Amino acid sequence: MILDLFAGPGGWSRALSVLGARDVGLEWDEWACKTRACAGQLTIRADVAMYPTWPFSGRTRGLIASPPCQAWSMAGKRLGLLDQPLVHTAVEDLAAGRDTRERLLTACRDARSLLAAEPMRYLHALNIEGEPEWVVMEEVPDVLPLWRQYAAILRGWGFSVWTGVLNAADFGVPQTRRRAILLASRTRTAQPPAPTHAQVAEPDSLFGPGRDRWVSMAEALGWGATDRPVPTVCAGGGPGGGPEPFPSGSRKTLSDARERGTWAPRPDGGLLQTGRERTAWAARHGAHENRAVTATAPTFTSEVHRWSWSLRSNNQAHATVRSLSEPAGTLFFGHRANECTWVAAASEPALSRSGPAVPEPIRITAREAGILQTFPADYPWAGNKGRQFSQIGNAVPPLLAGHLLAPHLGVTLNADDFTLAA
To answer: Residue 80 and residue 109: Cα distance in Å, rounded?
Structure first.
C-alpha cells in the first residue's frame, strides 16, 4: 500500500488517482475526512501521533507525509522555529528506536511542532526488508533543515535522497507556493522533477522544448486571457465572477438596484429580476455568500476596461497582491486576517477621479480557491465556509503532488488530466 500521513482533504490522493494508484490516508480532522469520503478516498480517521505502526509493517510500498504547517507557517506565530531543536531531538531519538516524544512535548511552545517528527516513527518501524520503497514529504520552506536531518538518516538506511525548495508555479500550478520537499528512493536516484513552467516563457532550443509561462489565475479559472474580469451581480445580488452590470460597484448602489428590480445577469445566462426570484435561484443552485459557487464567469462586456482585478492574500499591510494575469500568491486561511479577496483598481486614471466608484473587495469562493490549488471545480469540499477554506489552504496542490509522485510510480504525468475550471 501507499501510506499517506496527515492526508488532509486529499491533495496527494487526488494526484494518485489521476496517476492510476490509491493510498490509505491517516487524518484526524473530521471535515477533511468527510471531504475524502465524498471524493471516494480510503481513510482511517486517527491521530497520526497515537496510531500504531504495526498494521502497515511489511506491506508499505510508499510513504507520504505532509505534517501540519501551522506551527511553522508565516501565516501563524511560527513557534515551530523556536521548537525546532526539540523536533530535531525527537527525530534523532525515533530513528534510534527511542520514543521521547512525551517528555519533549512538555517543552514545546506549540504542541503541533512535534508532529513534524512523526514520519520518522513510521519510517523506523517500517524499515524492514526493503520497505518502504520510496518516501515523499512536503512542508513549508522553514522545515528544510529538518528534512535534511531526515535525509542523512535515510541515506544511512540505503535510500537515495534529495531535499530542496520547489515553487509550485514552476509545475503548472497557478500559485507561487514554495514548499520544502524530501524525495527518497531505494530503487532509483532521487531527484526533483523537471520544471515545466517559468515566469517568462522560454523558446525551444537544441536541448528540447522551452518551458511555458506560469499559469495565471485568469487562465486557471477560465476567465479568459484578459487580466481584467469584473465581478457581476448574481444569486441574490451579491458580487461574483463576470462583468459589472452597474455603473458603480458599491454595495449601496447594488442594494438600491435590487430594490428597484434592476435586471442582473445570472450565471447560467438567464436574467434575475426580483429579489425573491434571486433568492429562489440561489436556493436551487447552492449560492453561498451571495455568490453562485458553481458558476463560471460570464462573457465580459464593454465595462471590462474599467477595472483591473487582483487577488489580495489577506487584509494585512504586507499582503501579497497579484493581478489575474499572474499566479496567485500562497493561499492560506484559518483566520479572518487571512481571508483572500478580489480587489479592483481603476484601469484608467481618470476613473478614480471622476468615474464610477471602485467596487468593494469580494471574498474568494471555495471553488475558486480549490481551482487555484489545482483541485477540480467540482471537488466535494465538506463543512461550512471556514472549514472548507482551512482544508484548501492546508492541502498539497494535486498537480505538484503528481509531478513528485509520477517517477516513483513509474508512470508519465499528463498535466491535462488535472482538470481545473469547468
So the answer is: 8
Pure H helices in 224-287: 251-260, 275-285
Q: Are 238 and 291 in contact (CB under 8 A)?
A: yes
Burial class (CB in 10 A: 0-12, 13-18, 19+), 149: middle
Would you list the domain boundaries of the chain? Answer: 2-200+389-417, 220-326+332-372
Q: What is the pTM of this model?
A: 0.81
For 307, the grid coordinates are: 477595472
Give the per-residue pLDDT at 88. 94
Strand partners of residue 392: none
Q: Which CATH architecture has domain 2-200+389-417?
A: 3-Layer(aba) Sandwich (3.40)
Intra-chain end-to-end CA distance of the chain, in Å: 32
DSSP H or E segment with residue 310: strand 307-312
DSSP assignment string, 104-135: HHTT-SSTTGGGGGHHHHHHHHH-STT--SEE
Contact at 8 Å (CB) between 83 and 67?
no
pLDDT digits (tens, 9 = 90+) for 175-201: 999 999 999 999 999 999 999 999 999
Distance in angstroms (rounded) separating the CA atoms of residues 32 and 35: 5
